[in-house]
Write a structure and sequence with these properties.
With about 375 residues, this protein is α/β, with parallel strands linked by helices. About 45% of the residues lie in helices and about 15% in strands. It is built from 15 helices and 13 strands. Helix 1 packs across helix 15, helix 3 crosses helix 4 and helix 6 packs across helix 10. The radius of gyration is 21 Å and the shape is globular. The relative contact order is 0.13. The mean pLDDT is about 90.
Length: about 375
Amino acid sequence: MELNIIISGGGTGGHIFPAISIANAIKELHPEAKILFVGAEGRMEMHRVPDAGYEIIGLPIAGFDRKHLWKNFGVLLKLVRSQWKARSIIKKFRPQVAVGVGGYASGPTLKTAGMMGIPTLIQEQNSYAGVTNKLLAQKAKKICVAYEGMEKFFPADKIILTGNPVRQALLAQTVSKEEARKHFNLQPDLKTVLVLGGSLGARTINQALMGDLSMIRDNEDVQFIWQTGKIYLEQVLQAVEKETGARGPIPNLYVSDFIQNMTEAYTAADLVVSRAGAGSISEFCLLHKPVILVPSPNVAEDHQTKNALALVNKQAAIYIKDIEAEEKLVPEAITTVIDQEMLESLSQHIAKLALPDSATIIAKEVIKLAQQ
Protein backbone atom coordinates (compact mmCIF):
# COMPACT_ATOMS: atom_id res chain seq x y z
CA MET A 1 0.00 0.00 0.00
CA GLU A 2 1.19 3.49 -0.90
CA LEU A 3 2.01 5.63 2.16
CA ASN A 4 2.41 9.36 1.48
CA ILE A 5 2.57 11.63 4.53
CA ILE A 6 2.84 15.40 4.85
CA ILE A 7 4.40 16.88 7.99
CA SER A 8 3.94 20.61 8.39
CA GLY A 9 5.20 23.29 10.78
CA GLY A 10 8.45 24.66 12.16
CA GLY A 11 9.82 28.11 12.90
CA THR A 12 11.87 27.06 15.95
CA GLY A 13 13.89 24.03 17.02
CA GLY A 14 11.02 23.21 19.41
CA HIS A 15 8.77 22.47 16.43
CA ILE A 16 11.38 21.10 14.00
CA PHE A 17 13.10 18.46 16.19
CA PRO A 18 9.80 16.70 17.06
CA ALA A 19 8.73 16.79 13.40
CA ILE A 20 11.97 15.10 12.29
CA SER A 21 11.73 12.56 15.13
CA ILE A 22 8.19 11.63 14.01
CA ALA A 23 9.38 11.28 10.39
CA ASN A 24 12.27 9.04 11.47
CA ALA A 25 9.90 6.86 13.53
CA ILE A 26 7.49 6.51 10.56
CA LYS A 27 10.43 5.46 8.35
CA GLU A 28 11.52 2.85 10.90
CA LEU A 29 8.04 1.32 10.91
CA HIS A 30 7.48 1.73 7.14
CA PRO A 31 10.76 2.26 5.23
CA GLU A 32 8.83 2.64 1.95
CA ALA A 33 6.80 5.65 3.24
CA LYS A 34 7.20 8.91 1.31
CA ILE A 35 7.37 11.94 3.59
CA LEU A 36 7.09 15.54 2.43
CA PHE A 37 7.62 18.47 4.80
CA VAL A 38 5.83 21.78 4.30
CA GLY A 39 7.44 24.75 6.08
CA ALA A 40 7.58 28.54 5.97
CA GLU A 41 9.89 30.25 3.47
CA GLY A 42 12.97 31.76 5.08
CA ARG A 43 12.54 29.93 8.41
CA MET A 44 14.89 27.52 10.16
CA GLU A 45 13.15 24.37 8.87
CA MET A 46 14.09 25.17 5.25
CA HIS A 47 17.68 24.02 5.95
CA ARG A 48 17.26 21.83 9.07
CA VAL A 49 14.85 19.41 7.36
CA PRO A 50 17.02 18.78 4.23
CA ASP A 51 19.99 18.27 6.62
CA ALA A 52 17.98 15.41 8.16
CA GLY A 53 17.44 13.88 4.70
CA TYR A 54 13.88 14.95 3.89
CA GLU A 55 12.35 17.06 1.12
CA ILE A 56 10.66 20.33 2.14
CA ILE A 57 8.56 22.90 0.28
CA GLY A 58 8.13 26.41 1.70
CA LEU A 59 4.93 28.45 1.91
CA PRO A 60 5.04 32.28 1.69
CA ILE A 61 3.49 32.55 5.17
CA ALA A 62 4.27 35.03 7.97
CA GLY A 63 3.00 35.52 11.52
CA PHE A 64 0.44 38.14 12.53
CA ASP A 65 1.75 41.37 14.03
CA ARG A 66 -0.31 41.52 17.22
CA LYS A 67 0.99 44.97 18.19
CA HIS A 68 0.48 46.77 14.86
CA LEU A 69 -2.72 45.33 13.43
CA TRP A 70 -2.65 47.68 10.42
CA LYS A 71 0.49 45.90 9.19
CA ASN A 72 -1.42 42.64 8.71
CA PHE A 73 -2.87 43.29 5.26
CA GLY A 74 0.28 41.83 3.65
CA VAL A 75 0.12 38.91 6.10
CA LEU A 76 -3.46 38.10 5.01
CA LEU A 77 -2.40 38.14 1.35
CA LYS A 78 0.43 35.71 2.18
CA LEU A 79 -2.04 33.49 4.02
CA VAL A 80 -4.32 33.29 0.97
CA ARG A 81 -1.32 32.54 -1.29
CA SER A 82 -0.13 29.89 1.20
CA GLN A 83 -3.51 28.15 1.15
CA TRP A 84 -3.48 28.03 -2.65
CA LYS A 85 0.07 26.68 -2.64
CA ALA A 86 -0.82 24.10 0.04
CA ARG A 87 -3.76 22.97 -2.11
CA SER A 88 -1.50 22.51 -5.13
CA ILE A 89 1.12 20.59 -3.04
CA ILE A 90 -1.58 18.27 -1.65
CA LYS A 91 -3.13 17.62 -5.08
CA LYS A 92 0.27 16.71 -6.51
CA PHE A 93 1.64 14.66 -3.55
CA ARG A 94 -1.70 12.97 -2.69
CA PRO A 95 -1.04 12.22 1.00
CA GLN A 96 -3.13 9.76 2.99
CA VAL A 97 -2.60 11.87 6.15
CA ALA A 98 -1.26 15.30 7.15
CA VAL A 99 0.54 15.98 10.45
CA GLY A 100 0.87 19.44 12.04
CA VAL A 101 3.53 20.19 14.66
CA GLY A 102 2.79 23.90 15.20
CA GLY A 103 4.42 26.94 13.62
CA TYR A 104 3.20 29.20 10.80
CA ALA A 105 3.01 26.66 7.98
CA SER A 106 0.88 24.09 9.80
CA GLY A 107 -2.21 26.37 9.74
CA PRO A 108 -2.83 26.65 5.98
CA THR A 109 -1.49 23.14 5.28
CA LEU A 110 -3.74 21.28 7.73
CA LYS A 111 -6.76 23.51 7.12
CA THR A 112 -6.49 22.83 3.38
CA ALA A 113 -5.90 19.09 3.93
CA GLY A 114 -9.00 18.91 6.14
CA MET A 115 -11.10 20.72 3.51
CA MET A 116 -9.88 18.23 0.90
CA GLY A 117 -11.00 15.27 3.03
CA ILE A 118 -7.52 14.17 4.16
CA PRO A 119 -7.34 13.02 7.81
CA THR A 120 -5.15 15.24 10.01
CA LEU A 121 -3.25 14.74 13.26
CA ILE A 122 -1.89 17.60 15.33
CA GLN A 123 0.86 17.50 17.90
CA GLU A 124 0.62 20.14 20.65
CA GLN A 125 3.92 20.44 22.52
CA ASN A 126 2.92 22.96 25.20
CA SER A 127 0.75 22.82 28.31
CA TYR A 128 -1.20 25.78 26.88
CA ALA A 129 -2.55 25.23 23.37
CA GLY A 130 -1.61 27.68 20.63
CA VAL A 131 -4.25 29.55 18.59
CA THR A 132 -3.49 27.63 15.36
CA ASN A 133 -3.86 24.21 16.99
CA LYS A 134 -7.10 25.22 18.74
CA LEU A 135 -8.59 26.11 15.33
CA LEU A 136 -7.21 22.98 13.62
CA ALA A 137 -8.50 20.73 16.43
CA GLN A 138 -12.09 21.04 15.19
CA LYS A 139 -11.30 19.03 12.03
CA ALA A 140 -8.39 16.93 13.36
CA LYS A 141 -8.90 13.19 13.84
CA LYS A 142 -6.27 12.86 16.59
CA ILE A 143 -4.50 15.33 18.88
CA CYS A 144 -1.24 14.19 20.49
CA VAL A 145 -0.36 16.11 23.68
CA ALA A 146 2.49 16.20 26.20
CA TYR A 147 0.62 17.36 29.31
CA GLU A 148 -2.39 16.17 31.28
CA GLY A 149 -5.50 18.36 31.47
CA MET A 150 -5.57 19.40 27.79
CA GLU A 151 -9.34 18.75 27.65
CA LYS A 152 -9.80 22.45 28.41
CA PHE A 153 -8.51 23.21 24.88
CA PHE A 154 -9.40 20.15 22.80
CA PRO A 155 -12.22 17.57 22.49
CA ALA A 156 -11.38 14.83 25.03
CA ASP A 157 -12.21 11.96 22.68
CA LYS A 158 -9.49 13.05 20.22
CA ILE A 159 -6.66 13.47 22.76
CA ILE A 160 -3.79 10.99 23.18
CA LEU A 161 -1.16 11.65 25.86
CA THR A 162 2.07 10.81 24.01
CA GLY A 163 4.68 13.27 25.29
CA ASN A 164 6.97 15.26 23.01
CA PRO A 165 9.37 13.48 20.66
CA VAL A 166 12.98 14.41 21.45
CA ARG A 167 16.29 14.17 19.63
CA GLN A 168 16.99 10.44 19.81
CA ALA A 169 20.77 10.90 20.01
CA LEU A 170 20.41 12.52 23.45
CA LEU A 171 19.32 9.24 24.98
CA ALA A 172 22.36 7.33 23.71
CA GLN A 173 24.82 8.27 26.46
CA THR A 174 28.21 6.68 25.86
CA VAL A 175 30.63 8.75 27.97
CA SER A 176 31.01 9.14 31.72
CA LYS A 177 30.30 12.40 33.56
CA GLU A 178 34.05 12.87 34.10
CA GLU A 179 34.94 12.34 30.42
CA ALA A 180 32.13 14.66 29.32
CA ARG A 181 33.45 17.45 31.56
CA LYS A 182 36.99 17.03 30.21
CA HIS A 183 35.54 17.58 26.72
CA PHE A 184 34.63 21.11 27.85
CA ASN A 185 38.11 21.64 29.43
CA LEU A 186 36.62 21.52 32.91
CA GLN A 187 37.51 19.65 36.10
CA PRO A 188 36.19 16.05 36.08
CA ASP A 189 35.05 16.12 39.73
CA LEU A 190 33.37 19.55 40.18
CA LYS A 191 29.64 20.22 40.32
CA THR A 192 28.62 21.53 36.89
CA VAL A 193 25.84 23.89 35.74
CA LEU A 194 24.79 23.84 32.06
CA VAL A 195 23.27 27.15 30.93
CA LEU A 196 21.13 27.05 27.77
CA GLY A 197 19.30 29.83 25.99
CA GLY A 198 17.91 27.84 23.06
CA SER A 199 19.59 27.79 19.65
CA LEU A 200 19.33 31.59 19.26
CA GLY A 201 20.12 32.57 22.85
CA ALA A 202 18.18 34.14 25.71
CA ARG A 203 19.04 37.75 26.50
CA THR A 204 18.11 37.80 30.19
CA ILE A 205 19.90 34.53 31.01
CA ASN A 206 23.05 35.80 29.26
CA GLN A 207 22.87 39.18 31.03
CA ALA A 208 22.48 37.44 34.39
CA LEU A 209 25.70 35.49 33.85
CA MET A 210 27.58 38.49 32.41
CA GLY A 211 26.64 40.49 35.51
CA ASP A 212 27.87 37.80 37.90
CA LEU A 213 31.13 36.62 36.30
CA SER A 214 33.13 37.45 39.43
CA MET A 215 30.70 35.38 41.56
CA ILE A 216 31.17 32.46 39.14
CA ARG A 217 34.97 32.78 39.38
CA ASP A 218 34.92 33.03 43.20
CA ASN A 219 32.88 29.82 43.62
CA GLU A 220 35.68 27.35 43.06
CA ASP A 221 33.49 24.31 43.84
CA VAL A 222 31.16 24.97 40.88
CA GLN A 223 31.82 25.21 37.13
CA PHE A 224 29.66 26.42 34.24
CA ILE A 225 29.09 25.35 30.62
CA TRP A 226 27.46 28.34 28.94
CA GLN A 227 25.73 28.19 25.54
CA THR A 228 25.16 31.84 24.63
CA GLY A 229 23.43 31.52 21.25
CA LYS A 230 24.90 33.06 18.10
CA ILE A 231 23.40 36.54 18.61
CA TYR A 232 25.00 37.13 22.02
CA LEU A 233 28.40 35.46 21.65
CA GLU A 234 30.39 38.62 20.90
CA GLN A 235 28.82 40.55 23.77
CA VAL A 236 29.49 37.66 26.18
CA LEU A 237 33.11 37.23 25.06
CA GLN A 238 33.71 40.98 25.61
CA ALA A 239 32.32 40.72 29.16
CA VAL A 240 34.50 37.65 29.86
CA GLU A 241 37.54 39.42 28.40
CA LYS A 242 36.93 42.44 30.63
CA GLU A 243 36.73 40.17 33.71
CA THR A 244 39.84 38.18 32.72
CA GLY A 245 41.72 41.40 31.92
CA ALA A 246 41.10 42.57 35.46
CA ARG A 247 41.73 39.26 37.29
CA GLY A 248 43.11 36.67 34.85
CA PRO A 249 41.33 33.67 33.21
CA ILE A 250 38.13 32.11 34.62
CA PRO A 251 39.09 28.40 34.81
CA ASN A 252 35.62 27.19 35.86
CA LEU A 253 33.79 28.57 32.79
CA TYR A 254 33.33 27.19 29.26
CA VAL A 255 31.65 29.50 26.71
CA SER A 256 30.28 28.61 23.26
CA ASP A 257 27.60 30.04 20.97
CA PHE A 258 26.25 26.59 20.06
CA ILE A 259 27.00 23.19 21.59
CA GLN A 260 27.09 20.58 18.85
CA ASN A 261 27.21 17.55 21.13
CA MET A 262 24.30 18.05 23.54
CA THR A 263 24.58 14.47 24.80
CA GLU A 264 27.96 15.27 26.36
CA ALA A 265 26.72 18.61 27.69
CA TYR A 266 23.76 16.98 29.46
CA THR A 267 25.98 14.17 30.76
CA ALA A 268 28.45 16.70 32.21
CA ALA A 269 25.73 18.69 33.98
CA ASP A 270 24.38 18.26 37.51
CA LEU A 271 21.94 21.13 36.96
CA VAL A 272 20.54 22.83 33.84
CA VAL A 273 19.42 26.46 33.46
CA SER A 274 17.04 26.95 30.54
CA ARG A 275 14.08 28.69 29.00
CA ALA A 276 10.85 26.66 29.33
CA GLY A 277 10.24 25.52 25.76
CA ALA A 278 8.20 22.33 25.60
CA GLY A 279 10.82 20.33 23.67
CA SER A 280 13.58 21.17 26.13
CA ILE A 281 11.37 20.26 29.09
CA SER A 282 10.62 16.86 27.53
CA GLU A 283 14.37 16.26 27.21
CA PHE A 284 14.97 17.17 30.88
CA CYS A 285 12.17 14.76 31.93
CA LEU A 286 13.58 11.85 29.93
CA LEU A 287 17.13 12.54 31.17
CA HIS A 288 15.94 13.10 34.78
CA LYS A 289 17.84 16.42 34.86
CA PRO A 290 17.36 18.91 37.72
CA VAL A 291 16.52 22.26 36.12
CA ILE A 292 16.02 25.96 36.85
CA LEU A 293 13.49 27.35 34.36
CA VAL A 294 13.46 31.01 33.30
CA PRO A 295 10.44 31.23 30.97
CA SER A 296 10.71 33.63 28.03
CA PRO A 297 8.13 36.43 28.30
CA ASN A 298 8.29 36.98 24.51
CA VAL A 299 6.18 34.00 23.42
CA ALA A 300 2.53 33.62 22.40
CA GLU A 301 0.05 33.45 25.30
CA ASP A 302 2.97 33.31 27.79
CA HIS A 303 2.97 29.53 27.23
CA GLN A 304 6.50 29.04 28.64
CA THR A 305 5.42 30.21 32.11
CA LYS A 306 2.54 27.73 31.96
CA ASN A 307 4.98 24.96 30.91
CA ALA A 308 7.27 25.83 33.84
CA LEU A 309 4.45 25.92 36.40
CA ALA A 310 3.24 22.48 35.26
CA LEU A 311 6.60 21.18 36.59
CA VAL A 312 6.93 23.46 39.61
CA ASN A 313 3.50 22.33 40.85
CA LYS A 314 4.90 18.78 40.99
CA GLN A 315 8.21 19.80 42.68
CA ALA A 316 9.97 18.88 39.43
CA ALA A 317 11.72 22.22 38.69
CA ILE A 318 12.78 25.58 40.13
CA TYR A 319 11.19 28.66 38.56
CA ILE A 320 12.72 32.15 38.29
CA LYS A 321 10.79 34.96 36.60
CA ASP A 322 12.55 36.59 33.67
CA ILE A 323 12.34 39.98 35.39
CA GLU A 324 14.16 38.61 38.49
CA ALA A 325 16.80 36.54 36.67
CA GLU A 326 19.61 39.13 36.63
CA GLU A 327 19.46 39.38 40.41
CA LYS A 328 18.64 35.78 41.40
CA LEU A 329 19.77 33.32 38.71
CA VAL A 330 23.49 32.80 39.40
CA PRO A 331 23.18 32.71 43.24
CA GLU A 332 20.24 30.26 42.95
CA ALA A 333 22.16 28.03 40.50
CA ILE A 334 25.21 27.89 42.80
CA THR A 335 23.11 27.20 45.93
CA THR A 336 21.11 24.47 44.17
CA VAL A 337 23.97 22.62 42.48
CA ILE A 338 25.89 22.13 45.74
CA ASP A 339 22.76 20.87 47.55
CA GLN A 340 22.83 17.14 46.77
CA GLU A 341 19.52 16.47 48.51
CA MET A 342 17.77 19.12 46.41
CA LEU A 343 19.32 17.74 43.18
CA GLU A 344 18.11 14.22 44.00
CA SER A 345 14.60 15.43 44.84
CA LEU A 346 14.31 17.44 41.59
CA SER A 347 15.65 14.50 39.57
CA GLN A 348 13.18 12.02 41.12
CA HIS A 349 10.18 14.30 40.58
CA ILE A 350 11.02 15.26 36.98
CA ALA A 351 11.65 11.59 36.09
CA LYS A 352 8.01 10.81 37.00
CA LEU A 353 6.85 13.15 34.22
CA ALA A 354 8.85 11.43 31.45
CA LEU A 355 6.89 9.93 28.57
CA PRO A 356 9.30 7.72 26.58
CA ASP A 357 8.86 6.49 22.97
CA SER A 358 6.72 9.51 22.03
CA ALA A 359 7.85 9.58 18.40
CA THR A 360 7.00 5.89 17.84
CA ILE A 361 3.59 6.22 19.53
CA ILE A 362 2.74 9.25 17.35
CA ALA A 363 4.08 7.51 14.21
CA LYS A 364 1.78 4.52 14.87
CA GLU A 365 -1.22 6.87 15.18
CA VAL A 366 -0.25 8.58 11.90
CA ILE A 367 0.01 5.23 10.08
CA LYS A 368 -3.32 4.08 11.56
CA LEU A 369 -5.03 7.19 10.17
CA ALA A 370 -3.38 6.70 6.77
CA GLN A 371 -4.66 3.13 6.57
CA GLN A 372 -8.29 3.88 7.49
